[in-house]
Amino acid sequence: MNGAESLVHTLVGGGVEVCFANPGTSEMHFVAALDRVDGMRCVLGLFEGVVTGAADGYYRMSDKPAATLLHLGPGLVNGLANIHNANRAMSGMVNIVGDHATYHRQYDAPLASDIEGLARPNSHWVKTSPDARGIVGDGALAIAAARQLPGKIATLILPADTAWNEGSGPAPPARPTPPSADAVEEAARVLRSGEPTLMLLTGRALREDGLAFAGKIADKTPTRLAAEGFNARTQRGRGRVSIERIPYVVDQALRVLAGLKHIILVGSKMPVAFFAYPDKPSKLYPDDCQGHVLTRPEDDQIAALEMLCDAVGAGQTPAPVVNAGERGRRRRGDDDRPRLFRADQGGGAA
Q: Range of 256's domain?
């Protein structure tokens, strides 16, 4: 088994089952391995930006990282715009970037470049495999990095001779961080205080089960729900809890968030303006508003919301889901607009 085959076996064993590829000469042994190893599906992209964009979209919809296969430094650079987008969306991705054979690098061939230097600004984990036998361990580390919560960008650089030389057998995968009981209790204390509170969600909290728990909490306690302005993926539609996003326009966001004393952060950050504007604040929340971290992006957001739901006695509360012809059942039906923008909250429609 050569190094490329051992790497593909490791990827498949680690749950990476799709490779979006735009290969060149230095990646041909890896391409052959993709064909020979069962369990890996290879999808050809005619431009590297398509390859990295497809890997980002795949993660957003499946919650699993895909691999990309890119040709040397120029191929990586062609794909960087969508690697940047994946990074901001907290998508996991394993980039396999081919390089010249280790003994050929000294000759500074026309396509030689500092691939690690190019990869580092948009990668959380970067490594060049030094030899064929080390590829298995490096591949397992790349998968572990990409599968963290939130997803991470891992870039593994594969010199051509490490792909064709004799490798070793495949290696196994890794796991996520449980929520903090102290953080859950602190959030429950804030919710019981009765002070104006917003629960701000992003990431996996915006999937159906996370929204259901958040909706129960909002129905049981005097809190509002909102999502960050930009999120990788939100599950919507009939039978799900509806959630509004923080408005993009600064003046609207300031009106919506006026009067808040607490923001409970579920994988999110305190809301700030997308850009700076003359005579407008960068922070969108009041100066005396406190942030409380229920979960960081790497924590298990669904488990934390379920624990918080139980802590405030909302476990048996029906989730306020959207049904046909209505925005969803709400605690106070005095206004048909989303709760975030109700007139009595001082909000304006986005």
A: 181-345
